[in-house]
Amino acid sequence: MSLYDIIRKPIITEASMQAMDQKKYTFEVDSRAHKLLIKQAVEAVFDVKVASVNTISVKPKSKRVGKYTGTKSGYKKAIVTLTEDSKTIEIFGEDAE
């Protein structure tokens, strides 16, 4: 598993967008990744300095469509806090408006 395989995608919610003002970024990560591995991956991919990493295992939720029931898959979420002197992560490109 390379460092580029650890970070799957950014999690874009209203709360995570407001946390970006405090240099906190939320990502869906590989479920086998630990905090040190997530820190190394973010520093390598985005060329920033990471102050801390908090991880959360999101449990699978049950969903129902009519009479059929199933579950959404669970995933691991990482909230990465950058240092004060670090640059910001541009999740959206400059052409996104």
TrEMBL record:
Protein name: Large ribosomal subunit protein uL23
Pfam families recorded: Ribosomal_L23
Keyword Nucleotide-binding belongs to the record: no
Subunit structure, as described in the record: Part of the 50S ribosomal subunit. Contacts protein L29, and trigger factor when it is bound to the ribosome.
Gene3D superfamilies: 3.30.70.330
GO MF terms, alphabetically ordered: rRNA binding; structural constituent of ribosome
NCBIfam families from the UniProt entry: PRK05738.2-1 (NF004361), PRK05738.2-4 (NF004363)
Reported function: One of the early assembly proteins it binds 23S rRNA. One of the proteins that surrounds the polypeptide exit tunnel on the outside of the ribosome. Forms the main docking site for trigger factor binding to the ribosome.
Keywords: Ribonucleoprotein, Ribosomal protein, RNA-binding, rRNA-binding
Lineage: Bacteria, Bacillati, Bacillota, Bacilli, Lactobacillales
Entry's family note: Belongs to the universal ribosomal protein uL23 family.
GO BP annotation list: translation
